[in-house]
Specification:
By secondary structure, the chain is mainly alpha-helical. 64% of the residues lie in helices and 3% in strands. It is globular and about 75 Å long.
Length: 412
Amino acid sequence: MRKRFLIWENPKDAMLAFVVFLMGIGAVNVFSASFVMAEATTGSGYHYLFRYIGYSIIGFIAMYITGWRVDYHFWLDHARYLYAACLAMLLAVKAVGPVVKGSQRWLVFGPFSFQPSEFVKLGIIIMGAAWLGKMISQGQRPSMFSEGRLPLPFLTPKALPFLATAVLSVLVLIQPDMGTAAIILALIIVLYYVAGQRKLELFALALPVAVMVILLILHEPYRMNRVRIWMNPWKDPQGYGYQAVQSFVTIGSGGFFGDPVGMGSGKFFYLPEAHTDFAFAIFCQELGFVGAVALVLLFGLLALAIFSIGRNTQDRSGFLLVTGVNFLVVGQAFANMAMVTGILPVIGVPLSFISYGGTSLIVSLAAIGLAVSVYRGEVRREEAEKPKAPPRPVYHDSFYVRRPDSGRRWTR
């Protein structure tokens, strides 16, 4: 596993270096995108920067626990309890969570609050890796379809991970948070595909899933408005399309090299959510096209480093776990950038390490820790399987002995 990755001795060191670099960029970007609003609302322009640093410290502690202190097999072995915890948190949100801007997504404990759906994403990865990995180790091919002449979806024990995930996805959907619900469901589908689900079976599920998505969009007018605005935000630039239009203006005004860092105009109450979901727009305005391309390449290199760890592990559950981490951290980042640039509709996903979001940052760092744990587990396995060389004799003037580990000694 200690295979060189670019200038690093192994992909694990490369992955950690990319994460630290991204977090450095994120700290600067969060401060630049938020100091105007923070000064106006809290009296301190450093408010969100200090909170970002605080969440980073908690996140590094979580990464240390999942990467160095606790082996990833512990989480896989206790996947059912993690699932129960995720279910309990989502039910608690519905029961006692505060309603903020029409959504009920948070749990509050005194001065602390967190978004359980972010932890659910990581829980689904662990649960899926544990159950699907066990199927593979038993010689079974993961499938959501029953066997026989007329295969039907979901009527098989192999579909249990998907059905369990669907329950959590529905609880997130009714918060309402359709974007996060879709990501949670996409995570388990990706794991099924990587684990060996037939492409034809996934294609057969695409039609009913598409119909369900269309019905959910038609059921809520605000979702339909998002789709209309996504297709042409200039139809209502001062209403529903305001955020999308301001995002395009902010990105476009950065040009090729961008404005000086901290001088972008989008943060001056023109672009809503400038430091959270639309932080990438401020980044593009202040670092330009060159900075945006560099950030995309950096996330691409992070994806390659994580993929290298998963590709070289012999543990199928570990491979699935690392694949899920890659999709969560890097896939979510690309989804955010696509959303901000108008390639995807607004779905409310954070830009990993770059945008402000405490729960998301902690979960992302804990996920990176799981990838570290898989790497360290593979190194230990390789060391254990490495053949040991026979002890060599050590010669002295009056006698010779074998090395102390042999337990034998001869004299002349």
